[in-house]
Amino acid sequence: MSPHGGDGSAAPPLAPSLSGPEPWHPVTVGVPGPEFEARPPGQYAFDFPDSVCDGWSTDLLTLRFASVRGAKHRYYRQPRQDAARAAVHEATGSIVFAVADGVSSASSSEHGAVESCRAALERMLHLLSGSQGPLDFQDVAHHAAERLRQLAQWRLGGKAPEPAEVARLYATTLVAGVVRPDRTGGSVELCRIGDSGAWMLEPSSGRYHPLFDSKTGSDTVLVSNEVAPLPQVPDRLEGTTARLSPGQVLLVGTDGFGDPLGDGDGHVGSLFARHLAVPPPPLWLAHVLDFSRETFDDDRTLLAVWPRATAEPR
Amino acid sequence: MADTKGVLLPAYVLADESGSMGPYQGELSDGLVSLCEGLRAEPMIAAKLRLAVLGFSDDVQVRLAVADMRTETSLPQVAIRGLTNYGAVFDDLLDRIPSDVQWLRGEGYKVHRPVVFFLSDGQPTDGKGWRRPHAKLIDKSQTPTAPNIIACGIGDAQAATMVEVATRPEFAFVAKPGTDIGQAISEFFHALTASLVASGQALGSASPQLVVNRPEQFTMAIDEVGQ
Asked: For the segment B94-127, what is each residue's pLDDT rounded down to a tens digit?
């Protein structure tokens, strides 16, 4: 593993006369996947760039996220089907966020992922303004599902779509949540639909505490293929709460990150524990997240929240 | 450190080598070659598959052990022989699949539910004897690594039998009446390669689904049974 190339040797400069910082080299973990120049997605996928990142801090919390297109989509000319969004609720200083992973069998899942994030954020901001109690995630999830239904109806020229039609167009997983800051860190509320994940990372020990059950836990014989994504909303939504304390980082990621992470005790876990010890520049997070590792070629999205007391951002 | 090396789909091709397949040995061999070459042409997909080819008649013989097709250089060779003992297939898979999954997990991989592609040109010559090992093989409570089975019948293989062998009605196919058997075998391998490539593309996504393409010149067996 090396963030500066697999063999540790320095790459030649681009031109002898150039001076200044070295270009970033690919990050590889173990055996890298094939190297190739990314191919363009379809001509109407121009609203879904290959990579996006964001980062900012409030007085008490720091946020970073990045979302990068996987090698499989870069090769087979598909757009990035992951999405993430985050916003600050100005009245309370809380950070609301959403991470979505469009289901590849849905024909416009990249739209579904973005729209479900947008709808979830809008609803969480609205609910935070109306009540100080726990977020009603059932309401948030239904709001996101309704957005997908409306989108499908518009797409079908006004015809009311069956749930299966909505799913065929826009099915997506979703993790949505809020961090409410306080003097000792923050309180976290999360919900999820589908198999994206969330962890509490302690960079000093390198330990990742999963906040949801894993589909690929070391105790499961086979990886589960059973995912019930939006627009389905289960009667009992999977939700959880946690404390975000100084020295910890809240992570929310799609399975493009969660699968290679596994239990977090391998090289991928070590890589991110090191690079997330303090908030990295957003572009650097995207670069590290775009690491190359054989067979892990899905889109990857990772969102992280630090309490400001932990460390100042770089 | 324990890293997940990848998430793999073990795929098993069960090729009927009974005597009645004799005239079509060439198509069977060519189909296997095209399957191997098709996967080698898609290294990103092949990296996530492990392919085994098993020939069956009176017993099961390994023609290709669970292999990474990016690096496998040998081509599976079939040998025409004996009868059409379905029971031997399912008895063999009852031992083989859990053992292979355990081995792959021991190598540091996570494993998707295995998939079996079953091709036969005849009715089982072991009567109803195959039903007990088959039932045990596909029962997830008895066999946690129970595979998905896609069954394709050609020649004398009947639609109702293929529906029984397959784990879902839409996974059972029979060649259309009057179809040239050699051509049907070629189409089987063409669809098999396409199914594996499409399934490989869906692996590691939010909804890793098994994609099963109907071979040209085949119909869904359940439609035949219903007529």
From this structure: 999 999 999 999 998 989 899 999 999 999 999 9
Per the CB < 8 A criterion, the answer to whether B218 and B174 are in contact is yes
3-state class of A196 per DSSP?
coil
At B98, the amino acid letter reads P
Instruction: Describe the crossing of helices A163-170 and A109-130 by its angle, rounded to 10 degrees.
Output: 110
Give the contacts of B155 (CB within 8 A, at least 6 positions apart). B20, B121, B122, B175, B181
Would you give the distance in Å from CA A131 to the centre of its chain? Answer: 27
For residue A7, tell me if it sits in a domain.
no
Judge whether A9 lies within some domain.
no
B136: DSSP letter: H
Tell me if B4 and A265 make a contact (CB, 8 A cut-off): no
User: CATH number for the domain including B114?
Assistant: 3.40.50.410
Interface of B with A (CB under 8 A): 1-8, 43-44, 47-48, 101, 105, 110-113, 144-145, 201-202, 204-210
Match 């992951």 to its residue by tokens.
A82
Q: What is the end-to-end Cα distance of chain A in Å, rounded?
A: 23
For B112, which of A71, A222, A227 is closest by C-beta distance? Answer: A222
Question: Does ipTM top 0.85?
Answer: no
Paired strand residues for B117: B13, B150
Nearest to A72 among B6, B8, B44 (CB): B44
B207 and A296 within 8 Å at the Cβ level: the answer is: no
**Tally of domains within chain B:** 1
Per-residue pLDDT tens for A210-258?
A: 999 875 555 567 776 566 899 999 999 999 999 999 999 999 999 999 9
Please list every residue in chain B whose beta carbon sits closer than 8 Å to the beta carbon of residue A72: 44, 201, 204
For A163, the 3-state DSSP assignment is helix
Residue at B53 is within a domain: yes
pLDDT tens readout for residues A65-86? 999 999 999 998 999 999 999 9
Rounded average pLDDT over B157-178 = 91
